[in-house]
Automatic annotation (TrEMBL):
It comes from Ziziphus jujuba (Chinese jujube). Belongs to the PTH family. The keyword Cytoplasm does not apply. Pfam families: Pept_tRNA_hydro. SUPFAM superfamilies: Peptidyl-tRNA hydrolase-like. Signal peptide: none annotated. GO terms for molecular function: hydrolase activity. It comes from the Eukaryota. This is Peptidyl-tRNA hydrolase, mitochondrial isoform X2. InterPro entries: Pept_tRNA_hydro, Pept_tRNA_hydro_CS, Pept_tRNA_hydro_sf. Keywords: Hydrolase.
Amino acid sequence: MLNRLSRRCFCTAAQPAPWLFVGLGNPGDKFKGTRHNVGFEMIDAFAESQGIAMNTLHCKAIFGQGFVGGIPVFLAKPQTYMNLCGESTGPLGAYYKLPLTRVLFHDDMNLPCGVLRLHDKGGHGSHNGLKSVIYHFRGNREFPRLRIGIGRPPGQMDPKAFLLQKFNRTAQERIDDALKEGVAALKLLLSKGLTETARIFNTDQKYKHIRYQTLPTP
């Protein structure tokens, strides 16, 4: 558990307002590299790019904290399993007394593999992780989220089996590129704010979406 001094140092009037970035996924080696864990991968990519160590257990999450351009940033990977991740995310927000300036990374079967979207709010889209988060935010859906496209299951494949499947080489290459783009978007978000970043980022991703529609499904 982080001590009170850490909380005061990161959440004071003298500092810019902090951001909490939460990646959704399932803990354990057997889930690494699966489609359902791209939220964890985004957190890891961002933490590595900024030199933030993810070495603390806090509010049922693997946790790290640091500054990016002078702005305090908290990073978390809930260890409750996807369907219960609100049990970690809700207490984290309450602990730091944050407004809903939170970004949740999650997989999305409604976007082609490797395409991203940044939104200021939205529903759960039948995503069980987001259902849990919204429940623990007392029904409030007005928090930002970064949607990470993983594509749709082929044919009659069970969506649950698809989510727990690892990416093939082509799909993994798209995800690797998407993680780099996501990291760049988050850095821009911290400096330019959500509205301006979403305008720039979503325009670029729209053209990427169009381009991917002309390519074979990975």
